[in-house]
Write a structure and sequence with these properties.
By secondary structure, the protein is an alpha+beta fold. The protein has helices at residues 37-46, 56-62, 72-78, 98-106, 156-162, 168-171; strands at residues 21-22, 86-88, 110-115, 121-130, 139-145, 150-155, 177-180.
Length: 181
């Protein structure tokens, strides 16, 4: 929250374990189809520890992917990440918070988050910069957006308003993610 504004009506939201962090994939993979953002993000996160990443066509053929929105539960069932240390939002029973995501990153995971940007859209979280303490309003997040093939910067409080799973009403996951080590 801006120092010049007083929190009189709206609550100041804070993070518990906030500090600057970055992840450095060796490649950022653009999605090649309008529905393949999840797989571009997976390929991007796998490039942190692997040099030989299959192209998108090979991914699609290998896992018999069809055009649709994919959520953590779908990706887990496909077995794409069986050979990796991965955590799926669908396996978390408690409410998923950004503090939980921070803990995963501190343990060495790269994280992709699904949101309502472009409806059920996955992006890779590359960095977090708490600009003034622990206020979410003054914390900037840096994402790789595979749809536009660009880096996107958003305030954490702004991101949390769109961090909503596109299928949350049927799958019960409000804030979906996949973390890969």
């Amino acid at each position: 929250m801006n120092k010049n504004r007083k929190a009189e009506h709206f609550e100041q939201t804070k993070l518990k374990n906030i500090r600057t962090f970055t992840i450095n994939p060796s490649r950022l993979f653009r999605q090649e189809r309008d529905w393949s953002c999840a797989f571009a993000c997976i390929r991007t996160l796998l490039s942190v520890n692997h040099s030989d990443i299959a192209d998108e066509d090979s991914f699609i053929k290998k896992y018999s992917l069809t055009p649709k929105a994919y959520f953590s539960r779908d990706i887990k069932k496909l077995g794409i990440l069986n050979e990796n240390d991965a955590i799926f939002g669908c396996d978390i029973s408690e409410e998923i918070t950004f503090d939980y995501i921070i803990k995963l990153i501190q343990k060495g995971y790269g994280v992709m988050l699904e949101s309502m940007i472009n409806y059920s859209h996955w992006m890779v979280l590359l960095a977090c910069y708490p600009l003034n303490g622990s206020n979410k309003e003054e914390c900037s997040l840096v994402f790789f957006d595979p749809y536009y093939n660009e880096i996107r910067i958003m305030r954490l409080d702004e991101f949390e308003t769109v961090w909503l799973d596109g299928d949350h009403e049927s799958n019960g996951i409000k804030k979906d993610f996949i973390a890969i080590k």
